[in-house]
């Protein structure tokens, strides 16, 4: 929707000069900085909603420039502290694996160029 406002020509001129001076102060070769990424859960099994919410909150602190090791360490620490020991987290662009996990404690997430797999294993006595 287009919106027009009535104003006198002197205020239009001052707006033009403000815009042109602010454009001049920015270098033209700036490359965009780190981008925030929206996680996409690719679940085949149900995941506890509380866990999913906490993963989303943790991933919101990362960008496309965050190393996968930092993502793994942060997610594992958060999951172990909030939902009990036994969490395993893998993140990266190229990996494969096979694992056994507890029901409702497995997440497969696309996060930019990374795939993140998080799951909890059974620990006797816990």
UniProtKB/TrEMBL annotation:
Residues 1-18 have a biased composition (Basic and acidic residues). InterPro entries: DLC_sf, Dynein_light_chain_typ-1/2. It comes from the Eukaryota. Residues 1-35 are annotated as: Disordered. GO terms for biological process: microtubule-based process. GO terms for cellular component: dynein complex. This is Dynein light chain 1. It comes from Encephalitozoon hellem. The lineage of its organism: Eukaryota, Fungi, Fungi incertae sedis, Microsporidia, Unikaryonidae.
């Amino acid at each position: 929707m287009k919106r027009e406002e009535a104003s006198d020509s002197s205020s239009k001129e001052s707006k033009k000069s403000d815009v042109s001076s602010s454009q001049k102060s920015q270098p033209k070769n700036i490359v965009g900085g780190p981008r925030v990424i929206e996680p996409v859960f690719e679940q085949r099994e149900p995941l506890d909603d509380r866990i999913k919410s906490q993963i989303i909150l943790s991933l919101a602190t990362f960008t496309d420039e965050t190393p996968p090791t930092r993502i793994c360490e942060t997610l594992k620490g958060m999951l172990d502290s909030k939902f009990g020991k036994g969490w395993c987290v893998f993140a990266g662009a190229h990996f494969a694996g096979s694992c056994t996990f507890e029901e409702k404690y497995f997440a497969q997430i696309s996060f930019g160029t990374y795939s993140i797999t998080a799951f909890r294993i059974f620990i006797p006595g816990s």
